[in-house]
Amino acid sequence: MEGVDVYWGVYVSLAVYFVVLFIALLIVRRGVAVEEE
Amino acid sequence: MRYGILIAVLAADIALALYSVFFGYNPEFLPYADPTSYRILYIHIPLAWNMYLAFTITLVSSILFLTRGSLKYDTISFCSTVLGVVYGFGGIVTGMIWANEVWGMPWSWDPRQTTTLIALLSYLGYIALRTSITDVEKARIISCVYGVSAYIMIPLSYLSSVMFRSLHTQLPQQPLSPEAYILLSLRVLTSVVLFITLLKIYYSSALRRRCGGG
After folding, report:
1. Do B198 and A24 make contact, defined as CB atoms within 8 angstroms?
2. Using the beta-carbon criterion (under 8 Å), do B21 and A27 form an inter-chain contact?
3. What are B137-184's pLDDT values in tens digits?
């Protein structure tokens, strides 16, 4: 239960998760790729 | 109001993700691996399960569009696929990072990795197909049929670690410790609520555009 000496990949995974959230938010905000009628 | 909910859910999800990475439970010992790499579980599983959820929503809404013909089901199908692909690639990348530590290499053409990649490429095909057909009505019908067909890859991906010789863990057969179970359940819960909130907002804006309501 320590917050130190964690495997580096855990931090990279967290960064990947934030990137996923950022892209999802960006897509939702802009409503991209939805065809116009 | 809906953005207030989004911000609240997003904050809860991020806070829990940070907690799980810095203070989450990990076993004392993992064979041939840093035990703290276990904490990738709290990031990887919510991403993967949201991908499965997204493509299941695509399946159900595609069937409903084909049977009832309502535009809203087609819109849900498209929005869910787009978000599912984003979450799915996140799941694959975090899985590769974990595999690099516990399997010794990031990509080994393991059945779970391979079937999940094929599933994602199939749904990328859905988006490509939909945006490449100029006849809107035809595009909707063809992409919904495709959305139903592509779903075959999802149970195949989920069951691949049971059906084939795989390095991937099989959660039902490997029970988690109570600490990990509680934290993982909370992570899955917040991320699913966040996904549904994102989908609802995306769906509403997309439907307004399609109906010409601004």
Report:
1. yes
2. no
3. 999 999 999 999 999 999 999 888 878 877 777 655 567 788 889 999
pLDDT value of residue A4: 60
Other Cβ atoms closer than 10 A to A11 = 15
- Report residues of chain B scoring pLDDT below 50: 213-214
Kindly report the number of other CB atoms within 10 A of residue A30's CB atom.
11
Residue extents of the structural domains in chain A: 1-37
* B83 and B195 Cβ atoms separated by less than 8 Å: yes
The Cα angle at residue B44 between residues B169 and B9, in degrees rounded to 5? 140
B11 at A interface, C-beta within 8 A:
no
What is the ipTM score, two decimals?
0.91
Residues 6+ apart with CB under 8 A from B9: B190, B193, B194, B197
Of B89, B101, B212, the CB nearest to A9: B101
Whole-structure pTM value = 0.90
CATH architecture of B2-17+36-210: Up-down Bundle (1.20)
Domain boundaries, chain B: 2-17+36-210
B155 CB-contact burial (10 Å; exposed 0-12 / middle 13-18 / buried 19+): middle
Residue B25, phi then psi, degrees to nearest 5: -70, 140
Q: Which of B89, B82, B122 is nearest to B206 (CA)?
A: B82
Inspect the interface and report whether the beta carbons of B37 and A9 lie closer than 8 Å.
yes
Residue found under tokens 């999800």: B13
